[in-house]
Amino acid sequence: MQTQNKQKAYFLRYLSLGPVLAVLAISVAFSTWAIFNYFFPDLLFHPLP
Predict the structure, then answer these.
(1) H or E segment at 17?
(2) Does the global pTM surpass 0.90?
(3) Per its UniProt record, what Gene3D superfamilies does this chain match (predicted)?
């Protein structure tokens, strides 16, 4: 019975880790995109003279 409780605890830890990693990955991707667009803006909205 003890091993079944451990398995449930590990499974809940696995389920809670996935969304956390997803949010972190999306945050890093969006931050990288925002910083890149800050330094190299789209030329459609900032045309060269």
Answers:
(1) helix 2-39
(2) no
(3) Single helix bin
